[in-house]
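FAQ
Q: What does a multi-component entry look like?
A: The components come first, one per line:
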Amino acid sequence: MDSQEAQEYLTNFVNVTSTQFHKLPGSAIFLRYVKSSYQDDPVRSAVELFLVLFAIRYLLAPKYSTKPNYVKLSEEEIDDLVDEWVPEPLVAKATPFEDAELEKRPVIVGPSGPRSKLTNGRTVTNLASYNFYNFVSNENLKERAIQTLRTYGVGPCGPPGFYGTQDVHMKIEADIAAFLGTTACIIYAQAFSTISSVIPAFSKRGDIIVADKAVNYAIRKGIQISRSAVRWYEHNDMEDLQRVLAKVTKEQAKKPLTRRFIITEGLFENVGDMADLPKIIELKLKYKFRLILDESWSFGVLGRTGRGLTEHQHVDAAEVDMLIGSMAGPLSAAGGFCAGSDEVVEHQRLSASSYTFSAALPAIAAVTASETLMMLQTQPELFVQLKENIRSMWTQLDPRSDWMYCTSTPENPIMLLTLKPEVVSSRRLTIEDQQQLLQDIVDECLAQNVLITRAKTLPAGPSGAKTDVYVPSPALKVCITLGLTKKEIEKSGIIIRHAITKILTRKR
Amino acid sequence: MTSDKSGRRRRSSSIIYQEPPESLEQISDQSALPNLNSQWVNAKGAWTIHPVLIIGLKILFDIIPGMTQEISWTLTNITYMAGSYLMFHWVRGVPFEFNAGAYDNLNMWEQIDNGDQYTPAKKFLLMVPIVLFLLSTHYTHYDFTYFTINFMALMAVVIPKLPQLHRMRIGLFSDPPDE
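Then the predicted structure of the entire assembly, as tokens:
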């Protein structure tokens, strides 16, 4: 019979497997374990059996990725994709506007100064460099710089934390701290990367930044690198700032404590106007925020002795948690600094990427900054003269022009002239049209031997993309210098004004 | 889940929510450097340390005077499970600063092998508590009380390891964070 055979076969099979099983090493232990674990408790044994089965299933399951849109490509597909890939050009093709600008770009030969020689042989009045106090033409400074070069060489060849720090660096740090009245100061090798490095050193992912909408490109980059959540407030609108601060405080009331910062500029690079520091300090104390103030354009300019916005608005510099400034503009040296408390400064020595990873400031620049800082302190007449020169230019341009007005404060030696809103609206000018008009004015001025420039701004980029991106209005940039007499300034002012009128009244 | 970009959405009554996929910035920060926090589970000796620690714990509990085998095994089991829960499932983020907090929302289990499931390390790390549990029930002589305690401890570390619970959060006392 079939069933009998099958039964016999089965018994035989069971016997064989059982003897084979008993021959296996460790089978006795396994049997003893199974026997002792049953213990007349089927439920518990079932649980254990289930666990063992689950473990075996888990062990045998194949690996897979949980990344969204994960596609596994074969070698050929990868090769195909690589072959198909055409890199975008590193530099996009120049627009006609850029081409035209490039063709007409003036090139200075020899040293730059209030009067500069161009490659076409003409000598022009230079109102396009940040040479406010004409330190560029100072022979003593040049001599001092050459001496320093002979002693220290060109660069320190290392980051500050890695043999890059020299005595002159420590001196300029002490000088600036003493000048501002803060307890400490740290210097950076590059003015631009100072603020973009200070912000991410303190503000991290999960922290909150409240920033002015018109802040410059370097600040925007810093905010972007910091990965913090950013809230923008309307440019210089203290009521809006208060509203934003109150909103943030309310939202965060029940959440774990995070670091919070207000970021603004002393003199705005894009607009030229001034922040209302006493009000900001009041608000930051009320809502418990820290203040990062970028004084890149106001340090060495504002105030009775050039201490910047804090001195101009009678605020103690120690009230500002991180005060960032530049030694590249008015001080005619290079590099930037951050002044603040000991804790703030020492933290940056290890946590600010630009300080830790880039080579230290060349000794020449550090010495020059120390020297020019000393000159600012000992020659208060510089500020009086600069103010007079600014006023001379201001009277030639702002109140007299029918077309343009100056967005800068009257204390700012960088005058940003923008087209009046009624001009823009009545002629329906786009941003590009305005830039073209301004470029024509610049060219016209150059034809009259006055060198000025447009404010050239970089696109705000994706950091502000979450809210509306701020676009600075196109502007002419006129930089006042002490290297010119009042007469010369007035003359240039008249030339600029006439150029504006000529370009804007010409027939199309 | 893949196309859901609207953040941690959750109905007010629900206590379970899922971590949303990372933003582009987070992904680029995560891939900037290898994840030093979770990489070591694949390193040499990372597997050996588990039995070593367990034996160490067992010896430690055994030398306490008046300790019975049952209690000693149960304590070993509970201590290991608690430690492993704390390490792999409770603490989120990375204790060192090297990628700007790009892993702040993920616990270590989710960071291991970039979130891949059924990798050798994950298989090993799941096997250890199961084997330890089977051993401790065996040596506690199948006493029901010890069994229950040990089993609950085991469940606390096995359930969060399941692939189905990847990036799931239970917010019993807290709201899901925004942004």
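Q: Is there any commentary attached?
A: Sometimes. For this entry: Chain A touches chain B at residues 33, 36-37, 39, 41, 44, 47-48, 51-52, 54-55, 58-59, 61-69, 200, 204-206, 226-227, 229, 254-255 (CB under 8 Å).
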